[in-house]
# Entry
Amino acid sequence: EYRDYEKIASYFSFPSVFGISSNPTVLNNKNELIDRYKIVREENIQEGYKYSLMEGYEFFQLSANISIIKATYSRYNSNYNKIYTGKGIYFYKKINGDWKLYCIDSL
# Structure
């Protein structure tokens, strides 16, 4: 499931934006999103990375169709040692009754 990019893409609407606070990148379709995730998850990941766990989150309902989740997560290696802790902010909008991501940024 870590590399199930088709499933990951199903959680997004397009266009989507990554890195709005530092270097915004617009991803216009599923293929662009999958290419981006391959870089993030296969090339720019901590050495020895095995899995992630969410440590906590804050939920903000901005309107009936817009919400934000601010999450803290940790990454672990195969020895169950924490190798990284980070925070992200995830923007969702309701489309045809389903919540879809449209913007992600690291904090």
